[in-house]
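Form 12-C: Joint structure prediction
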Amino acid sequence: MALFDPTILQSGEYHDWLVQGFILSIQLTVISFALALPFGALVAVMRTSTSRLLRAVGTTLVESIRNVPLLAHLLFWYFAFPELLPEGLREILYANNPEVVCAVIALTLYSGVHMAEDIRSGIRAVPATQLEAARSLGLGRAAAVRLVLLPQALRASVPPLLSQTVNLWKDTSVATVIGAAEMMYQAARVETASFRSLEAFTFATLAYLTVSLLISAVAYLFQRRYPVRTAA
Amino acid sequence: MLELIDTYWLYFLVGQYPDGPLGGLVLTILLSGAALVLAMPLGLMLGIARVSRRRAISLPVGAFVQLVRAVPLLLVLFWVYFFLPAVTGVKTSQAMTMLIVLVVFDSVYLAEIVAAGIRALPKGQLESARSLGLGYGQALRHVVLPQTLRHGLPSIVNQLVSTIKATSLGYIIGLSEVSFIATQINTLVFTRSVEVYLILALTYFILCFGLSRLAFLLERRLQRRPVGAH
Amino acid sequence: MIVLDNVNKYYGDYHALVGITERVEKNEVLVVCGPSGSGKSTLIRTLNRLEDIDGGRIAIDGRDIHAKGFDVNALRAGIGFVFQQFNLFPHLTALENCMLAPVQLKRASKADAREQAMALLDQVGLAHKADAYPDALSGGQQQRVAIARALAMRPSIMLFDEPTSALDPEMVGEVLQVMRSLARQGMTMVCVTHEMGFARDVADRIWFMAEGKILEKGAPGDFFANPQHPRAIQFLADRNRN
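Section 2 - Result
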């Protein structure tokens, strides 16, 4: 048996498994991101709201989700959550890729609260004096928020949000614990079937590296093009 | 729920010990603490190398840090678990494997904390130390690092929280940490999944939330007593 | 004691120091003044190599401080530098600030360093604050501790880079008083300062700098009464108006 046989990475059954895994990892990332971002924005708005109740709800959500590891979330949604569903819904869940659905729920919530914190820190990075200045020019609260606060807040939020996206991409690997056939699952499957662990893990490593570095490159370019110019 | 806790609390806490290796919550805590402590000296060295003015040192270290942060912890765990025995000839236990991987990851993140802290220190501190005739190493040891570590303490506590959460990945290689034990209990009991996993979540929450509150209080204390020249 | 020979320095294209050729004698008190951006801070920072030069030669006690293999740390140990921003070490008490360098550089045992530090703190009027941390001290007190810390190394030269510019007006006096007494004791001092009263009373010579050059130099009496260079005249007029 050769030490490293790259051919299995290029074609054949094992290659197909690994590619399928890679595709599912990407899908998990994209879907979870699409759901997590609005969720995170909503939570961020709650946490910065003037209503004490909303702030409390937001904080509870963030702290209770953030302080539990992603693996435990996945276990809960896959093993415990279906028990809470009425019979009919449970059947529907089990018939439709429950591993992926539960993975998406867990990833969305977990990433979402981290994004909420990033957006919140972006909002807080804009000094209160900015809003004051906008209001004293005669702008209404909504206009002041829209034209002065949000653009600055978003620009400050993008770098940490992109960093959180890289984390999300890496976190999809944990979904293997509930049997989602993403890349780590497939790499382990190839290893069990063929003992070609070196090739399988190399494939996975290159895949993760490439996408991570790609997203980081986007973050770097964004910071070059839109540097955060703070009020001196 | 109470009878569940009553029956299984010891198993949850220490796994099969003393009839088997240590497991459960105690294993989680011990692994995390040990990993952080062992990673400190390494993280310190890497952090200092990160801010070195000699590119021959700062660039390779920077590349290494970027690399480690670009791959999932689970992948590194698989690499070490599958290949370390082949390389060293010694069969490493799951706990040892987990510890090695955690130390590598923690040292990289600690290095970032140290590097950020050194960069954030006012330039005048290093200048005044050098002006007294202290060498660069002496200035680091007596002036820069004491301040950096003090400021970095909240971040270091947060890193401990991250480490505790990271130990859960040991589940996947069969390590008997607390999430693994919870699933074992769930398999035994079978009909009380919601309660089992809620208890697991609550356990992590108390531990991690408690520590992050500590970090928050430390940060507040640092702000009230500004450790910085005018 | 200090000899500058055609010293030039550039920041990119900007010519910060232009062909400076001067001497500073032992026991002399030299004041360097001029508008901001004139290069006075840059000049004083080249003397202990906090800044390096791009051309020319600087010799202290006859030795070229940029010679190959020259021990920079030994140079700095023999020169005391007082910063505008004090730069005390916030994690150490006033006493510990003064003890750090002598102990670490093996100039004194811990006990001797402590004794000497206490004596110096007493000299600057802060013996009662020996165990205080910098954040408990006022700006003027911090600067006085900074002076004591620099003196703890028994330097032969003291450099002051705008020592009172960051202080509230009521604290300027206490720091100048310490500097005056140092001058009386015969210390070789180079002071970059805006305090013209101090210059008039204490300085042996004044250098007026603008745009990287020394445009006028002389005894304080001559300089203040009879400035020659138009820039100097302008500078003093602005000062007097304020």
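Section 3 - Comments
The first helix of chain C runs from residue 40 to 47. Chain C has a mean pLDDT of 91.
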